[in-house]
Automatic annotation (TrEMBL):
It is found in: Cell membrane. It comes from Clostridium scindens (strain JCM 10418 / VPI 12708). This is Phosphate ABC transporter substrate-binding protein. One of its GO terms (cellular component) is plasma membrane. Residues 39-166, 188-300 form the PBP domain. Part of the ABC transporter complex PstSACB involved in phosphate import. Residues 1-20 form the signal peptide. It is a lipid-anchor. Pfam families: PBP_like_2. Belongs to the PstS family.
Length: 303
């Protein structure tokens, strides 16, 4: 009798243990399912809108090209939603979008890397070839500017190099659209220093141009300061920079202060999203709707 009771107790304990293990596996499975579900991109989530700071030439060109502006009292006003997160450089923009599954932003095409995904706009991929053919229309000039009457031999020679065949090859090799009919560089190799500063979008290609110029004139020192387009222009006006950089057209107020612009390249603006985003294409109107705050969630554009 005692033996039968003992066997019965063992059977009950075994069943209880089996149930416990079974429950544990079920819970673990539920947890894994929840994790898998959480990792899936959810179009019903809010869009994280990321924009550049005031003074950014990329922001100015972006809002103009996509019509994210309105005319109030005769002046164009940026209508970017107040809900947008503001970043102060190209690199921070890409880091921000790469770290948020639901973010959207924009960067210079030449600065684009594989940490984010560039969207097709109106059916066209953001490539240098499509910009050149006119298929991808979201593009703007890269300008440099000097103050009229400025006298810096190194700055003048460096500009001659930028516009030469050798300089324009650097432009093309770094993913930008080069100028046509550039001639071979014929420099005088002056000695001295020049300060170049402004747009963070122009800075990457300018850094490469400086490296290439030093290879042909090691007697010159070129200092590069990365700020923004507006600072680039105001600093060229007041003499802080010998050469200012702007990733947009110059304003009338800037040229009236004596700045002389020179286009050194054409660049596209890539609309970027997180690589987990399942969306591959947006229309210009959809981009505008997102940045003006009319479209709030991804499922409003993902059909």
């Amino acid at each position: 009798m005692r033996l039968k009771k003992f066997i019965a107790v063992l059977a009950i304990v075994g069943m209880a243990a089996g149930l416990a293990v079974g429950c544990g596996k079920s819970d673990a499975g539920d947890g894994n399912d929840k994790k898998a579900e959480a990792s899936e991109w959810d179009a019903s989530r809010d869009i994280t809108i990321v924009s550049r700071e005031d003074g950014s030439g990329t922001r100015g060109a972006f809002t103009e090209l996509f019509g994210i502006e309105d005319e109030i009292d005769g002046e164009k006003v940026d209508m970017t939603t107040q809900e947008a997160q503001i970043t102060n450089s190209t690199s921070v923009m890409m880091t921000t979008v790469a770290g948020d599954d639901y973010a959207i932003g924009y960067v210079s095409l030449g600065s684009l890397n594989d940490s984010v995904k560039a969207m097709k706009i109106d059916g066209a991929e953001a490539t240098a070839e499509n910009i050149k053919s006119g298929t991808y229309k979201v593009s703007r000039p890269f300008n440099i500017a000097t103050k009229e009457g400025a006298d810096n031999a190194v700055a003048e020679d460096f500009i001659n190099f930028i516009l030469s065949e050798e300089g324009q090859k650097v432009v093309a090799d770094n993913g930008y659209i080069s100028l046509d009919e550039a001639k071979p560089y014929e420099g005088s190799a002056p000695e001295g220093k020049a300060v170049v500063g402004g747009s963070s979008s122009v800075s990457p290609v300018m850094e490469k141009l400086i490296e290439a110029y030093k290879a042909v004139n090691d007697k010159a020192e070129i200092e590069l300061q990365t700020t923004d387009s507006t600072t680039g222009m105001t600093s060229a006006i007041d003499g802080s920079y010998d050469i200012g950089m702007a990733s947009r057209e110059l304003k009338d107020t800037e040229t009236s202060e004596g700045l002389v612009p020179q286009v050194i390249a054409t660049d596209g603006i890539a609309v970027i999203v997180n690589k987990n985003n399942t969306t591959d294409e947006l229309s210009s109107d959809q981009v505008k709707s997102i940045y003006t705050g009319e479209t709030l969630t991804w499922d409003e554009v993902v059909k």
